[in-house]
Design goal:
The protein is mainly beta. The chain is built from two helices and nine strands; from the N terminus they run ααβββββββββ. β7 and β8 form a beta hairpin.
Length: 232
C-alpha cells in the first residue's frame, strides 16, 4: 500500500514538473527509480518465530481392543513404552501462529488376556505424524492434535509362542488427543492423553474358523509425559 502511494505521488510530481518546464515526459528521475528498486527488495518479515523441539517420551498405556463377535477380552496395561519425539511449531501461511507438526518413533508393549482364544503380549515399533495445534499463554500451552500412525509387531513375549500366517504383524490407524505443557528455560514438559484407533485387523478373519470370521482391532488409551529441549 505504501509503495503504491509513493508511485502515485512521484508520478503526479513528475507530471507537474513536465507541465511547468515543458520538458519531455519522464515520470521518474534516476533517484526515484533507485528508491523504488530498493524498496522492492525488502522482504516481508516473518510475524511469528518458529520453534523446534526434541524430546524423550514415556507412556502408560491402557491397552484394549474391539472385536466382532464380542470376545470379552481384558487389555493389559503397560508402562515400558518410550518414544523419540520432534515437534516443530510455525505459522500457517504467516497467519496462524498456533500450528505445528509432531513426528515420533516409539518402542513399546501391547497385549490382552482372553478366556476364549489365545492371549497376546508383544513388543512393537511405531511411527506417527500428527498435526498439533497449541494455544500459548505466559509459560504454558494447551495442546491438541490428530494424525496417522503405522507400526510393526516385533516379537511375542509369551513363552514358546510363535506367529503363523494368519497373524497380521503390521498395524496402522489414527490417533489424537489433548494435553498441557509448561515451559521453563530451554525445556518444556508436556502431559497428554491420546486415543489410538487401529484400522488393521490383528488376525486374518478366518484364523479360527472358515465359517465364523473374527475381527479384532486394538483400541488404546495412552498417557504421555514428554520432556523437550528447545533447539531454536
Amino acid at each position: 500500500m505504501r509503495k503504491t502511494a509513493a508511485i502515485i505521488i512521484l508520478a503526479f510530481v513528475s507530471l507537474a514538473s513536465w507541465a511547468q518546464n515543458g520538458e519531455g515526459f519522464n515520470p521518474f528521475t534516476d533517484d526515484d527509480l533507485s528508491i523504488l528498486m530498493q524498496d522492492s527488495l525488502v522482504k516481508e518479515q516473518a510475524r511469528f518465530k518458529p520453534t523446534g523441539m526434541l524430546g524423550i517420551r514415556g507412556s502408560y498405556q491402557l491397552n484394549g481392543l474391539s472385536s466382532s463377535p464380542d470376545l470379552q477380552v481384558t487389555g493389559l496395561n503397560t508402562y515400558k513404552n518410550i518414544s523419540l519425539v520432534y515437534t516443530y511449531y510455525s505459522s500457517l501461511w504467516n497467519m496462524m501462529s498456533n500450528f505445528g507438526i509432531q513426528a515420533a518413533v516409539k518402542y513399546g508393549e501391547w497385549g490382552f488376556d482372553s478366556k476364549y482364544f489365545d492371549s497376546e503380549h508383544l513388543t512393537y515399533a511405531e511411527a506417527s505424524l500428527l498435526t498439533q495445534f497449541h494455544f500459548d499463554f505466559s509459560r504454558f500451552r494447551v495442546l491438541g492434535g490428530i494424525g496417522p500412525y503405522a507400526g510393526y509387531r516385533l516379537k511375542s513375549l509369551i513363552e514358546n509362542d510363535s506367529w503363523d500366517k494368519f497373524d497380521n504383524r503390521f498395524d496402522y490407524g489414527l490417533m489424537g488427543g489433548a494435553g498441557f505443557a509448561v515451559i521453563f528455560g530451554p525445556f518444556e514438559l508436556q502431559l497428554e492423553g491420546d486415543y489410538q484407533f487401529s484400522l488393521s485387523n490383528l488376525y486374518h478373519m478366518n484364523k479360527y474358523s472358515d465359517e465364523y470370521w473374527v475381527t479384532v482391532n486394538p483400541r488404546n488409551i495412552i498417557i504421555n509425559l514428554t520432556l523437550f529441549y528447545h533447539l531454536f
